[in-house]
Write a structure and sequence with these properties.
The chain has one domain: NAD(P)-binding Rossmann-like Domain (Rossmann fold). The protein is 44% helix and 14% strand.
Length: 306
């Protein structure tokens, strides 16, 4: 795949998944604007890309505001003449249960993830429409936004909202030949190292040890580099017909997430009273109630020891 001539902005790309995305895009010929809030981290990321033969510049700014979003687009245009792809990856965590979550915990996460995705996508969409030759918006979601996770009210709300916006934008920008997709990655990063179930696999990645097949396939858990190929593909001309999708990636697995669909319908002449619902629920609706949270399979070693 060749991305020569394309220009991409990747938010939150100083380290982790964002850095893997930026490196992959640059390795395939794209010129990249690397964004991070830490100047030293951003500079190191650009240097690592340059050392590998890629072209990149850093733009140090906290994603969230309209001004920062516009400055990212302006940086791409001033440095490289245009913008072809936006990857909205910047994020933070403030995990705690609902009754302990402060307004600041909620607002900080929603501002960076949800508002930051909105403001950056809006600025990019305006630029794409002005250029007149299409573009790519790739928004980073999370399994938490799809299924929920204990202690992550703010993060779940933001990531679910991102996928909702992606579906809407894919319709609004279709006539401008701008595709909009969400990527739902799972990888060893700072955001997954606090998950107890994944701890052994995160440590394995840190130590450079190979991950077992169970992790890479059953859990779809791998390195940040494992998640970079789908970003490059969606940024390419080959993905011109793909839009409005939520695509999962991790380890050896690539998936397409379903959109929410009605799973059962019942009808009652004259409408549903509370008593009619109470009578019908156990037999008509209860069998179709949906599960919540991630359902992790049992590791082979645990099954053998039981």
């Amino acid at each position: 795949m060749d991305l020569t001539g394309k220009v991409a902005v990747v938010t939150g790309s100083g380290r982790g998944l964002g850095l893997a995305y930026a490196k992959k895009l640059a390795a395939l010929g794209a010129k990249v604007v690397v964004n991070d809030v830490d100047a030293d981290v951003a500079k190191a990321a650009v240097e690592s890309i340059s050392e590998s033969g890629g072209i990149a510049v850093e733009h140090v700014a906290p994603v969230g505001s309209s001004d920062v979003a516009q400055s990212l687009v302006d940086r791409a245009v001033s440095e490289f003449g245009r913008l072809d792809a936006l990857v909205t990856n910047a994020g933070v965590l403030r995990d705690t249960v609902l009754w302990k979550m402060t307004d600041d915990d909620f607002d900080t996460v929603v501002n960076v993830h949800l508002r930051g995705t909105f403001t950056c996508a809006r600025a990019a969409a305006s630029r794409f429409r002005e250029q007149g030759d299409g573009g790519r918006i790739i928004c980073i979601g999370s399994p938490t936004g799809q299924r929920g996770t204990f202690g992550q009210t703010n993060y779940a709300a933001a990531k679910a909202g991102i996928v909702g916006m992606v579906r809407t934008w894919s319709m609004e920008l279709a006539r401008a030949n701008v595709t909009v997709n969400a990527v739902i990655p799972v990888a060893a990063t700072g955001m997954t190292e606090t998950v107890p179930f994944l701890q052994p696999y995160v440590e394995a990645v840190k130590n450079g040890d190979p991950l077992p097949e169970f992790a890479r396939r059953a859990l779809a858990f791998g390195t940040p580099e494992d998640a970079a190929g789908i970003i490059a593909f969606l940024a390419s001309d080959a993905a011109a017909g793909i839009t409005g999708q939520a695509i999962g990636v991790g380890g050896d697995r690539l998936t397409v997430w379903s959109h929410p669909e009605q799973v059962v319908a019942g009808f009652s002449d004259g409408g549903w009273t509370e008593d009619a619902i109470a009578e019908a629920w156990p037999t008509v609706f209860e069998p179709h109630q949906q599960s919540v949270g991630e359902k992790f399979p049992t590791p082979p070693e645990a099954a053998e020891g039981s």
